[in-house]
Specification:
Low-confidence stretches of chain A: 218-222
Strand content of chain A: under 5%
Number of helices of chain A: 10
Largest interface: A-B, 21 and 21 residues
Number of strands of chain A: 2
Radius of gyration of chain A: 19 Å
Shape of chain A: globular
Distance between the termini of chain A: 48 Å
Helix content of chain A: over 70%
Strand order of the largest sheet of chain A: 1-2
CATH class of the largest domain in chain A: Mainly Alpha
Largest sheet of chain A: 2 strands, antiparallel
CATH topology of the largest domain in chain A: Four Helix Bundle (Hemerythrin (Met), subunit A)
Oligomer: homodimer
CATH superfamily of the largest domain in chain A: GntR ligand-binding domain-like
Order of helices and strands of chain A: HHHEEHHHHHHH
DNA sequence: CGAAGATGTATTGTATACAAAACGGGGAAG
DNA sequence: CTTCCCCGTTTTGTATACAATACATCTTCG
């Protein structure tokens, strides 16, 4: 059975990603311990871990809160992702095997179906997208790189707004994955890095547009 | 007074950086607790922190060891540093203030003295170098970037071999800092990023050369 | 002689109790 | 009315005890 601290970590993380805990909410150890059914000891460990992943912020006086992200923060995170995942794509291209390439193709075929449906299958897209990027990172085989990127991918604020992407954003993303596959097939690191950087940067613009749209909706509702 | 867990963190970190604890040494919580004069609780916290900074490695069965770095690992870390510090230099150039620029110049003047002495002042060089890079990172003002780079800078294996750099390596490093100052003065982000990348990559080559030298010395002694 | 299994020992995981520090509210002084 | 301080409450930090797990050694069997 998994350790209690691991379960606590997963539980709290899920509560943050799902939005059950909102940005700025205080994370009292006692309260979390009760919710997770464990003592404070494993909770403390889970909080330190989430803090190192930037999902949790601690004040000077050691109190923990759900991290809040300004648009600048998000832009910053995406730019870092663009560089690091660009590097990952380069390494992956240099280390690409026929098996990994085949798996990437099959993942992307799944995404194609999700994207081309009359009503785009958002969850299907997100799952395929995650698998695609994860396999690239895995093929890059740098534990250090994986560690750094782990802190940046799957930020709640990011993928929750993907729900509001337009159809063309999904389709563009899919076709950029096809470009990556071509670069991988030729084992062309320069090309793969360049495509991946553009891919991530355009993803930020899609996020940014969707976010602006949401913000004006909020204003309209207020 | 600082927290016991902070003191434990500093103590263990110093023991690793100084070489008192060597690569591969096991870090038993009980033993460390005794050495630091605290209980296991703050030690556990310190170990998690050091682990997230990659100074400590944990096995599948949760035992902690001083991390060991293969040459590939070091190359990997330097390449990541090259990209991230390149980005830091770009942001710093865009955000440069007259005050920060002046401080960078004065730091580099100190380094010049250390480097040009008849017998190069290695500690003086390392201190100045660290301050120089730290101030750039600070000027870049991205907490996320600082967090990621924190895990990569000041790795023991790196700066301990700086002791064996040749005089020309020190001087080249110093003159590259001058180039960076010029880029900062013009607020030229592209230039600063490019110079910084080359700077870090050449630092790796200097490390790599010194390391090869040491390896043959070891072989000669055996 | 080698390999698989059992057992004692070392090490980590968790719960709990208490100590220390930070926050918040209410009251007194200006 | 505002500001500062005091004190009760809340929250975090540390020590300790015990439970669970992993490791190493020795034994036993093939």
């Amino acid at each position: 059975m998994a350790k209690a601290s691991d379960r606590a970590y997963e539980t709290i993380r899920a509560m943050i990603l799902s939005g059950e805990l909102e940005s700025g909410d205080q994370l009292g150890e006692e309260a979390l311990a009760e919710r997770c059914g464990v003592s404070r000891t494993p909770i403390r460990e889970a909080l330190r871990r989430l803090e190192s992943e930037l999902l949790v912020r601690r004040t000077d006086s050691q109190r923990s809160f759900v991290a809040d992200w300004s648009l600048d923060d998000v832009a910053d995170a995406f730019e870092l992702r663009a560089m690091l995942e660009g590097y990952a794509a380069r390494r992956a291209a240099e280390r690409m095997t026929p098996e990994a390439l085949e798996r990437l193709r099959s993942i992307n075929a799944r995404v194609r179906v999700a994207v081309r449906a009359t009503k785009p299958d958002v969850d299907g897209f997100l799952d395929g997208n995650r698998d695609f990027h994860a396999l690239i990172l895995d093929t890059a085989s740098s534990r250090r790189l994986s560690g750094l990127l782990g802190a940046l991918i799957e930020q709640p604020v990011v993928w929750r707004t993907a729900q509001h992407y337009g159809r063309e954003a999904f389709q563009r993303s899919h076709s950029e994955h096809e470009d990556l596959l071509a670069a991988f097939a030729r084992r062309d690191g320069d090309w793969a890095e360049s495509v991946m950087r553009g891919h991530i940067r355009r993803a930020f613009h899609a996020y940014s547009d969707a976010h602006r749209g949401l913000a004006s909706l909020d204003l309209g509702a207020a």
